[in-house]
Specification:
Elements: E1 2-3, E2 12-13, E3 25-32, E4 41-42, H1 44-52, H2 56-64, E5 72-76, E6 83-90, H3 103-121, E7 126-129, H4 135-145, E8 163-166, H5 173-194, H6 202-214, E9 219-223, H7 225-230, H8 234-240, E10 248-255, E11 263-267, E12 269-273, H9 293-307, E13 313-323, E14 334-337, E15 343-346, H10 353-365, E16 371-376, H11 380-386, E17 391-395, H12 398-411, E18 415-417, H13 422-429, E19 436-437, H14 446-455, E20 464-468, H15 492-502
Parallel strand pairs: 3-6, 3-7, 7-8, 11-13, 11-16, 12-13, 15-19, 16-20, 17-18
Antiparallel strand pairs: 1-2, 3-4, 5-6, 9-10, 10-13, 14-15, 17-20
The protein binds zinc ion.
Zinc ion binds at residues 273, 275, 323, 350, 352.
């Protein structure tokens, strides 16, 4: 998969190079285990393969002992494949109900990823994966694990990634392909987020999306600063003031159904967040290249929906800019006007995500959508509250909350509901001299006051969800298949599942 960026890394192949010199093939098989039992229980595919080795594979596994969930053992020269990685599928019933996860599916992602990683570490260039009775999830685990961001490394220092394919004689090829499409779209989001800010400016982001999504039957309109001025997006434009990089505003349309009403997805696209005049401390400021994680989620979700030909009508709205300090930057205390006429005191220029989303929400509302979902790396407070394993969701609609909650348990990328109490709205709106302050009055509850702020820009009758992903942006330790280091692209698979189910005409 190639994507185009300006400068030194034009058209780089990022995750599908193969070993030139290696030709060995490997196979990933699954085996279940249950507590206290040594008995080996293969998947149906693995059972057949074991029989083809005249029972030798089973014999070997019995010698080395049970293979637990997430573990792998490689067996050489047994059957048709020179290398066979047997990956532990564990016991789905061991997942606690309170974990709110479909354990059987999650175990398959974990196992497929472990198998691919083990063979890859042994320099196997072509890896074939069986269906593990859940081919979509096997594809997701395998594809997310077979990813490495090395676009800026010298060619000869790059680690080649193996080619991963589905076993020809396994069942559920269409589901496998579905999993590959979704996981590759998540890998695309990871690349967008990981790419350094000087190589992923608003213009480069817009060009990259136009190229990649344009090729996938998505209409991509790239609006400029003059357009935003005409729309009276004073809140969005106030954030762009300090940067020399011109802002962009993406409007994406995928029409997979005849439905007149669309689902609106809005994503925060701060391609670099220095904090502006309210400058951030320098430690870890580089992470702020991924402050467009919401934008990456919207773009990759629409890409996947289009490639899957999902029967939904979806529009994406993505404000893109840098937040920088300079002589022209917005100053703390400045008052600006959003598209809906509300005045906002910019108390802290580092609370800029809500400022650009405010206008994007207003603009999205003009299309009279079925519902609006906005997604943003919005607050450090959400990480304090929930850590790095779950996204926070604020929803004005119980049915939509239930649908996204269920989607999260299916995909393994979970969500947790947060409050939209009037108390928080009062903290944002009860001021003399202007309508809203971009910081809450009270102490604590930073994610909740941010959500309360955004709520002021969604018309009362429009069902709405706000997803705060600052906690799951990067370095997540809960999903072995996504890897514990680097930008995650999460929770786009949950968005794909949710929009497919909740966005249809029914
Ligand atoms: Zn900020």
């Amino acid at each position: 998969m190639a994507f185009l960026v300006r400068g030194s890394i034009s058209t780089v192949r990022l995750w599908s190079r193969s070993y030139a010199s290696m030709s060995k093939k490997g196979l990933v098989l699954g085996v279940y285990s249950s507590e206290g039992k040594d008995e080996v229980k293969f998947t149906p595919y693995a059972q057949k393969y074991s029989e083809s080795t005249a029972g030798k594979l089973l014999e070997q596994i019995n010698i080395c002992g049970p293979i637990k969930s997430g573990q792998t053992r490689i067996f050489w020269e047994l059957g048709k494949f020179p290398a066979v990685a047997v990956a532990g599928l564990g016991d789905a019933s061991k997942w606690d109900e309170l974990d709110e996860i479909d354990g059987a599916k999650e175990n398959v992602r974990i196992a497929a990823a472990a198998g691919v990683r083990a063979l890859s570490a042994n320099k196997i260039a072509e890896i074939v994966v069986e269906d593990m009775e859940h081919p979509q999830q096997a594809a997701e685990g395998a594809t997310l694990a077979n990813y490495k961001f090395q676009a800026f490394k010298s060619k000869d220092k790059q680690t080649p990634l193996p080619a991963v394919t589905f076993a020809e004689d396994a069942s559920g090829k269409a589901d496998w392909e579905r999993g590959v499409i979704i996981a590759e779209a998540q890998n695309f989001a990871r690349v967008l987020m990981e790419t350094p800010a000087n190589h992923m400016t608003p213009s480069i982001f817009a060009d990259t999306v136009k190229q990649r999504l344009g090729a996938a039957n998505v209409e991509v309109l790239v609006h400029d600063e003059a357009w935003a001025k005409e729309k009276k997006m004073g809140s969005f434009l106030s954030v762009t003031n300090g940067s020399n990089e011109p802002p962009r505003f993406l409007e994406l349309t995928y029409r997979g159904s005849q439905d007149e009403q669309c689902v609106a997805l809005v994503g925060k696209g701060i391609t670099f967040d220095s904090g502006g005049i309210s400058l951030k401390p320098s430690a870890n400021m580089d992470q702020m290249r991924a402050d467009m994680g919401g934008a990456a989620n919207v773009v990759s979700t629409i890409l996947a929906l289009a490639q899957l030909k999902a029967p939904v009508h979806v529009k994406g709205f993505v404000p893109l800019c840098e937040n920088m300090p300079s002589g022209t930057a917005t100053k703390p205390g400045d008052v600006v006007y959003a598209m809906n006429g509300k005045s906002i005191c910019v108390d802290n220029t580092d609370a800029e995500g809500r400022l650009i989303l405010a206008d994007a929400l207003c603009y999205a509302s003009t299309f009279n959508p079925k519902f609006i979902l906005d997604i943003a790396t919005l607050t450090g407070a959400i990480k304090v509250a929930l850590g790095d394993c779950v996204s926070g969701v604020f929803s004005s609609n119980n049915k939509l909350w239930e649908a996204i909650h269920e989607a999260g348990s299916q995909t393994g990328d979970r969500v947790w509901r947060m409050p939209l109490f009037k108390h928080y709205s009062d903290q944002m709106c009860d001021h003399n001299g202007y309508d809203l302050n971009n910081l809450g009055k009270g102490k604590g509850g930073g994610s909740c006051t941010a959500a309360a702020f955004l709520r002021e820009f969604v018309p009362k009758g429009t069902p709405w969800l706000h997803v705060d992903i600052a906690g799951v942006m990067g370095d997540c330790s809960d999903q072995s298949y996504t890897g514990s280091k680097g930008m995650s692209g999460r929770p786009m698979r949950t968005l794909v599942e949710f929009v497919t189910k909740a966005g249809g005409s029914a």
